[in-house]
Design a protein that fits this description.
484 residues; two-stranded antiparallel ribbon
Length: 484
């Protein structure tokens, strides 16, 4: 009997069916047992399996508190915030870079991404069997599943280094599948796998413009090219960065930077891939994403975590419109008329997590912008500069600066332009979950964290530790990252 796990909008199953590999288990929300897959052998049923992958990105452990801890609180862009002592066993540790292999955020992000990878593998296993569904739709859905699987593996590699590559639903009686679940692959092998998934996705996915208005958040060909360019950026394969950035077409910078983080800016002309929340029932938002980052204390509306650091404040040049669009300052009035009183607990909060319509709700209409055309421009600029085409990189950098209300850069040498591009990435993409990884990728981490009063240990902190639960279950098949 084939067992398919379904909730109204969420489909899940354990990665290792029938086996107790707890770190890979996916919590079931509801189950429907069927003797075959006939109930899903139609267009709507086929789409359900891929929609389930997107729905995983709305989960608390996937995109909310622990992810914020790892990508923002652990970076120099943010401090823990909240009140002293709150979640001192995790977020204080993330803030001080004193986390360990048993820290909550470390385990949550690892497990949540593998839960999503399982959903992608399940979709890729079942879609070919749904022969009554339209063949072109099934091909597109498989492309979406591979894009999302690649996205999650890229997250894992950036965070943990080489990880197990689980490319199909595991058989509990197979020794080879047990090894697949528990044995780390190298970073190079992971990148090869990611690139293959993205190449397959590119061949199957349509352009964003081909989707209807209610499907604009789905993965597109442009998203796959942009993610592939970003993978190439981390590999320092500069020519491929340029080539793939050039294939991201049909997008443009929006005139008002701040509009991207309001309801009117969801899936706009600049957005290439974002995680969408609606705040309404039955479709949901990202669990706790806005609430945990909302202003805390008297006159506030949230938990107050992930507060912009003084280092980030000082990174903005005078006149940069992005500062006011990124940081909520106590004592100011927000775009919707809400007054942030001086009585809130912290002086600054993350504006990009703010929801006007569902301000203090657990699930809001706030989206996470993961790939924007501005980043494509900056990636291309960085790659051209590294290819000794500095004169071609400078106009691209200035496109971003002009939109921010700033004059053209004064940088002219390759070294100065490199530094200028890195600085521009920081203020352009603050709180979009890239800063920690950018510092590691570019070799800026030790100096940058020192400015923010944190000690980044070279040779250790480039990677987060693998969760201790995984290391224990691997029983020697995988080893821990250095320093942990």
């Amino acid at each position: 009997m084939k067992k398919i796990y379904i909730s109204i909008f969420v489909l899940s199953a354990s990665l290792f069916v029938g086996c107790s590999k707890d770190f890979l288990d996916v919590k079931q929300t509801a189950s429907v047992s069927t003797t075959d897959i006939s109930l899903y052998n139609n267009n709507a049923g086929a789409a359900t399996f891929v929609t389930a992958i997107y729905e995983n990105f709305l989960e608390w452990n996937m995109s909310s508190f622990s992810w914020i801890g790892m990508t923002s609180i652990a970076s120099d862009d943010a401090d823990k915030g909240s009140d002293p002592g709150d979640t001192g066993t995790d977020k204080d540790l993330m803030d001080a870079l004193t986390y360990n292999s048993s820290s909550l955020s470390i385990g949550d992000v690892f497990t949540a991404n593998y839960a999503g990878i399982n959903r992608a593998n399940q979709a890729l296993d079942i879609l070919p069997q749904l022969t009554a569904a339209d063949a072109s739709l099934r091909a597109r859905l498989a492309g979406e599943a591979k894009f999302l699987r690649a996205f999650m593996y890229f997250t894992l590699v950036k965070a943990y280094g080489g990880v197990p590559i689980i490319d199909h639903l595991a058989n509990p009686s197979s020794a080879a599948d047990t090894k697949m679940l528990l044995a780390r692959k190298t970073v190079a092998e992971c990148y090869t796998f990611i690139e293959k998934d993205l190449t397959d996705a590119i061949a199957a996915l349509p352009d964003k413009a081909a989707y209807g208005a209610n499907e604009r958040a789905r993965a597109s060909k442009g998203a796959a090219y942009a993610l592939l360019a970003k993978v190439n950026l981390y590999e320092k394969n500069w020519q491929k960065v340029v080539d793939n950035c050039n294939l991201v077409t049909g997008y443009s910078l929006v005139s008002d930077y701040s509009s991207q983080y309001k309801l009117i800016g969801e899936n706009d002309n600049e957005s290439i891939f974002e995680i969408s929340g609606t705040g309404s029932t039955p479709t949901k938002g990202i669990q706790g994403y806005s609430n945990t980052q909302g202003a805390r204390g008297a006159g506030g509306w949230g938990w107050g975590f992930n507060t912009p650091s003084l280092s980030l404040v000082n990174a903005y040049e005078a006149g940069d419109v992005r500062k006011a669009a990124t940081i909520i300052f106590a004592g100011t009035t927000l775009y919707d008329g809400r007054v942030v009183p001086l009585t809130v607990s912290n002086p600054r909060y993350n504006y990009k997590a703010y929801s006007s319509a569902f301000t203090d709700a657990w699930e809001t209409d706030t989206d996470i912008k993961y790939l924007r055309f501005a980043e494509v421009i900056l990636m291309k600029a960085e790659a051209l500069n590294e290819l000794n085409s500095t004169s071609a990189a400078i106009p691209l950098l200035n496109q971003i600066r002009t939109r921010a209300g700033l004059p053209n850069t004064t940088a002219a040498s390759q070294a100065d332009v490199r530094t200028a591009i890195w600085k521009e990435r920081r203020v352009e993409m603050a709180f979009e979950h890239d800063r920690f990884f950018d510092l590691v990728r570019t070799g800026q981490a030790v100096a940058a964290f020192a400015v923010d009063g944190k000690t980044f240990v070279k040779g250790k902190h480039e990677l987060f530790p693998l969760p201790q639960s995984f290391i224990t279950q691997a029983a020697g098949a995988s080893t821990q990252n250095p320093g942990y």
